[in-house]
Amino acid sequence: MEKNVQLELDNQLCFALYACAREVTKLYRPFLDELGITYTQYVTLLALWEKDEVSVKELGRRLYLDSGTLTPLLKKLEGMKLLRRERDPQDERSVVVRLTDEGRALKERAAAIPERVFCQTSLSPADITALREQLRRLTAEVHAGSCEPTDR
């Protein structure tokens, strides 16, 4: 029986990314627990701290989340009084997301999280920047479309 190395788990890009993402996300957990939020809630707040008063559609695009995932997440954050969802008066079909004072204040408490997480890795700031840029390029390429399979 011929061994197909392409189908070995350790040779899969998807598994390397999945395992790494899970482990990095675990590094965030104790800091996010202090704030009473999950990782997905954290990245949603990061996007809103960067640009407040955005449509649900725009926020979903920014986070790569569909409305079926984003709506319950926003509902939970609204229940925590960190944001408000309101119909856009210019377009009743659109819902705008706005941070509350509590949501904006949480940014101060979260400010040290990136540094606290990066201190737990052995990567230099330059390595982290290079890796982040490489992952952004990969995401953009995957998002842009596919190519024909090659002999890699």
Automatic annotation (TrEMBL):
<keyword id="KW-0804">Transcription</keyword>
<dbReference type="InterPro" id="IPR036388">
    <property type="entry name" value="WH-like_DNA-bd_sf"/>
</dbReference>
<feature type="domain" description="HTH marR-type">
    <location>
        <begin position="10"/>
        <end position="140"/>
    </location>
</feature>
<dbReference type="InterPro" id="IPR055166">
    <property type="entry name" value="Transc_reg_Sar_Rot_HTH"/>
</dbReference>
<keyword id="KW-0805">Transcription regulation</keyword>
<keyword id="KW-0238">DNA-binding</keyword>
<dbReference type="GO" id="GO:0006950">
    <property type="term" value="P:response to stress"/>
</dbReference>
<dbReference type="InterPro" id="IPR036390">
    <property type="entry name" value="WH_DNA-bd_sf"/>
</dbReference>
<protein>
    <submittedName>
        <fullName>MarR family transcriptional regulator</fullName>
    </submittedName>
</protein>
<dbReference type="GO" id="GO:0003677">
    <property type="term" value="F:DNA binding"/>
</dbReference>
<dbReference type="GO" id="GO:0005737">
    <property type="term" value="C:cytoplasm"/>
</dbReference>
<dbReference type="Pfam" id="PF22381">
    <property type="entry name" value="Staph_reg_Sar_Rot"/>
</dbReference>
<keyword id="KW-0963">Cytoplasm</keyword>
<dbReference type="InterPro" id="IPR000835">
    <property type="entry name" value="HTH_MarR-typ"/>
</dbReference>
<dbReference type="InterPro" id="IPR039422">
    <property type="entry name" value="MarR/SlyA-like"/>
</dbReference>
<dbReference type="GO" id="GO:0003700">
    <property type="term" value="F:DNA-binding transcription factor activity"/>
</dbReference>
